[in-house]
Amino acid sequence: MAQINTCLKRTFTIFNIFFAIVGGVIISLTLLAQFSTSFQEGGNLEGRVNGLFGLYIVGAIIMVLAILGAYGAHKESRVALIVFLVCMVLGCLVMFRYAVPVAVMRPQVEGMMEDKFRNYLPLDEHSEDVKNMADNLQKTFHCCGLFSYNDWKNIPESCKCNLEEEEEGKCQTVGYRYLMERSTSVYTQTCFPIIMHYFLLAFDIVLGVVFTLAILALLGMILSSVMIHQMRHPNRPPILLTVSTVFSTSPPKYEELYNPPPY
């Protein structure tokens, strides 16, 4: 005999399907990010491998929990639902614990990133990974230097404009900085604002995903709690609201006329 309300079971199943889709999307986006960054020279940047590995784990855990929840609802397994509930509570607490401080810290991110990138200057004197990264950014986004063309002691070819870009007004002429050095035309746009634009975009997307997962975990916690409660009390009769006889109306006066009281 079914112990869980059919409508609730279907709602919980739809929730777990959506939850599994979210996990699959996270894994797919992580794969896309891994392939897109692996083609860049100097791709072994700090934290890249750990970040991708963490996203794979999160996506896999979400899909496993979705399968566990769907199995528990379909088979009406109290053990599976209790495990699902415990995982939802822990996940909700962890995500809110880390997401709220990160969201509060967001206005300070640009200043922290600027301080970090200024440690790379001058770019010529830093590691090959940093120089290759800067070179690739300049070629891709048509910018020069992180904050100025002066970030380079020797301006690379990736900073220099062609004739068509000069006519479009995207370039500036750099004067003589050293003896016997010819003036050249470099991109006016610097690279740091472009980096920050994409970094903050990714930051906001990740933050939105974390809060969405926390809300989904809270919803899953509520649904699984209701189902566990129904399984613990399968034979509890429904509560009917009745009106007490104290509030019943007295018979009309004409009945007293036709039915006189006995003496």
Question: Main β-sheet, in a few words?
Answer: 2 strands, antiparallel
Question: By helix and strand content, what is the structural category?
Answer: mainly alpha
Number of strands: 2
**Oligomer class:** single chain
Query: What's the helical proportion of residues?
Result: 55-70%
The gross shape turns out to be: elongated
Distance between the termini: 60 Å
Order of helices and strands: HHHHHHEEHH
- Ranges where pLDDT stays below 50 over 5 or more residues in a row are 39-46, 237-247
What's the topology here?
Elements: H1 6-38, H2 48-75, H3 78-105, H4 109-118, H5 128-141, H6 163-167, E1 171-174, E2 184-187, H7 192-232, H8 253-258
Antiparallel strand pairs: 1-2
Helix pairs in contact: 1-2, 1-7, 2-3, 3-7
Report on the architecture of this protein:
This protein is mainly α and 263 residues long. 63% of the residues lie in helices and 3% in strands. It has helices at residues 6-38, 48-75, 78-105, 109-118, 128-141, 163-167, 192-232, 253-258, and strands at residues 171-174, 184-187. Strands 1-2 form a two-stranded antiparallel ribbon. α1 (6-38) packs antiparallel against α7 (192-232) and α2 runs antiparallel to α3. It is elongated, with a radius of gyration of 33 Å. The two termini are 60 Å apart.
